[in-house]
Design brief:
Layout (H helix, E strand, L loop, with lengths): L1 E4 L15 E6 L5 E7 L4 E9 L2 E8 L3 E8 L4 E8 L7 H7 L4
Antiparallel strand pairs: 1-2, 2-3, 4-5, 5-6, 6-7
Amino acid sequence: MARACDPEALPLPVEVGLATAALTVVRANGLVAGTLVALDAPTVDILGFADEHTVLVNVGQAPAASIVIAWDVTGGVLHRVTAQNPYLDISLADLRAVAGQR
């Protein structure tokens, strides 16, 4: 399960700065699998799971851009999938339609 969390509740080292948005992934056993923190984006919208380990996230920098990233929660790796100008509300169904998937 992936869900947004309160960025102000996440203590970060002073040299890193303050979190502006965050999300966390929780496993079926209730343990946290990982937390993704943004330092300069006002929103991180969960689009859904591409597979059992990869969350697609729309990092919003309204009104300038939407940056869709794939977050491999198990490996902790981020990959940029696409960037759209200006900011768009995007769904996983929208991305699959573009890729010709159902």
